[in-house]
Amino acid sequence: MSFDPNKIRLHIANDLQERVVVPLTREQAHYLGNVMRRKESESVWLFNGRNGEWRCELLAVGRKGGEALPVEQSASQVDTPPLTLFFAPVKRTPMEFLVQKAVELGVTHLQPVLTERTTNRRMKEERLVSIAIEAAEQSERLDVPVLLPTISFPELLHDLPVDHLLFCDEDDGMNAMADVLSCQDEGGSWGIIIGPEGGFSGAERHALQSDERVIGVGLGPRILRAETAAIAALTIFQSTLGDF
Ligand code: SAH
Question: Domain limits at 212?
């Protein structure tokens, strides 16, 4: 992947096919025209998570929106292998950081899970989605991870949407995540769960430890902030069973 600093990538919802004009939102037109000073007939690269990435010519960039014409497909659609990060919401800034890094590190689904010690119960989903889209644009992904609805901890285990759940547990004596994964076969779908600033409650830990779908893993001898733990866990997963 050759990095081109002048290449602007934007996610759109519309289908992308050769020479079928697509609309740009007002925000996208403002960004292209006023911030990045792009003019009609210059290029922008668009992707929608289905039709790959297309180099498009700007037809119109105005205050009310814009239009672009897909000219050539610059990358065919590649779907990211499924990987879900379940996280107990933390304070706004670290949570937005966590979402941004999780997108760069290749999650396909993000799901907030309200645990007993979760302090921040008010999330601005729209803001998290726009952070995920911006991170997908920047990291040259061809898809945008899905932000799943916030659920409670009991609901998570009752309807676990993955085959294997890696429980990041800061307790002493946990086996290192890389060692645990190195002796796992790759079958089935995987999830990683990270607790809140105050950690999981005793009851939650017990529920996780007694669930056969759950595998406890350690991330080293230090207590990591939730956002740090998410980055560490995703990096280890991607470099053992994932797409690094
Ligand atoms: N109970 C901790 C705070 C939790 S840290 C304390 O004593 O302060 C937030 C979350 O990050 C934890 O719930 C856990 O999921 C993860 N985490 C932090 N450090 C970890 C480690 N060394 N190994 C595994 N998970 C860790």
Answer: 83-240
